[in-house]
């Protein structure tokens, strides 16, 4: 089982510091993205266009974080030529970095839908589906990042299992919203925008799942992205 202290055994203290700094940068970006998601969901539920615009504006900061982490990873690979678990750490951070940036993009899209919906009135669903799915994917993202911080494989497996529930609720929400459109054609515009917001939440669930799978790769050295839950179960701790 890989442990955090495994990244602190190098002869070069500078290399230890570089790896820990890289990991901390990624987790800091994760916290910023998590806050973007929470704010985007709240802005939609409250139809707060001012906060929605602020979320869109802050997306540039997330993009800058992504580029900074990419540069740091490239520098470590070029200068240190890491191998074994060190290389897995750098590769995992590169992949998580991409997923976090895309979650930031999806949060900005939710904010954009909030601004579009502000002129159309409240959805007949009262955003019940947004609230429910938003809470679920928010929890998935938080637990995926926490699992990465603590190198907790079992928690990562639980995150991946949670994506099935997101997909189930997303399908149910689409059917429910389609019924609302059939019942009142005047609400088609606002409901379509709500559907796009829900689509962003569903994608965020996918990215949170990716982060959890990257953690399994980091700790176990096993690529389980296409193995489904059975493949993940094989790499989860026993007991």
Automatic annotation (TrEMBL):
Q: Which residues form the PhoU domain?
A: 27-113, 130-213
Give the family, as the similarity comment puts it.
Answer: Belongs to the PhoU family.
Q: Which SUPFAM superfamilies does its entry note?
A: PhoU-like (SSF109755)
**Entry keyword set:** Cytoplasm, Phosphate transport, Transport
Q: Which Gene3D superfamilies does the UniProt entry name for this protein? A: Phosphate transport system protein phou homolog 2, domain 2
Q: What is the lineage of its organism?
A: Bacteria, Pseudomonadati, Pseudomonadota, Gammaproteobacteria, Cellvibrionales
Q: How does it assemble?
A: Homodimer.
| NCBIfam families the record matches | phoU_full
InterPro entries for the chain: PhoU, PhoU-like_sf, PhoU_dom
Question: Can you say where in the cell this protein is located?
Answer: Cytoplasm
Q: Which Pfam families match?
A: PhoU
Q: What is this protein called?
A: Phosphate-specific transport system accessory protein PhoU
């Amino acid at each position: 089982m890989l442990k955090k202290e495994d990244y602190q055994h190098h002869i070069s203290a500078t290399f230890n510091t570089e790896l820990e700094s890289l990991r901390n940068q990624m987790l800091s970006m994760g916290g910023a993205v998590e806050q973007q998601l929470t704010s985007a969901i709240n802005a939609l539920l409250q139809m707060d266009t001012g906060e929605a615009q602020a979320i869109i504006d802050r997306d540039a900061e997330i993009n800058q974080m992504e580029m900074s982490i990419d540069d740091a990873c490239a520098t470590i690979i070029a200068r240190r030529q890491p191998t074994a678990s060190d290389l897995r750490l750098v590769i995992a951070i590169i992949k998580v970095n991409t997923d976090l940036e895309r979650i930031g993009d999806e949060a900005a899209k939710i904010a954009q839908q909030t601004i579009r919906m502000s002129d159309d009135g409240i959805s007949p669903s009262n955003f019940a589906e947004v609230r429910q799915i938003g809470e679920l994917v928010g929890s998935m993202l938080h637990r995926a990042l926490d699992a990465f911080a603590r190198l907790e494989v079992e928690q990562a497996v639980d995150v991946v299992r949670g994506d099935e529930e997101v997909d189930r609720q997303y399908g149910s929400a689409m059917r429910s919203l389609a019924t609302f459109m059939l019942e009142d054609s005047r609400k088609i515009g606002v409901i379509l925008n709500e559907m796009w917001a829900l689509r962003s939440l569903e994608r965020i669930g996918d990215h949170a799942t990716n982060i959890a799978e990257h953690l399994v790769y980091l700790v176990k050295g096993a690529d389980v992205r296409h193995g489904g839950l059975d493949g993940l179960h094989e790499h989860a701790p026993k007991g």
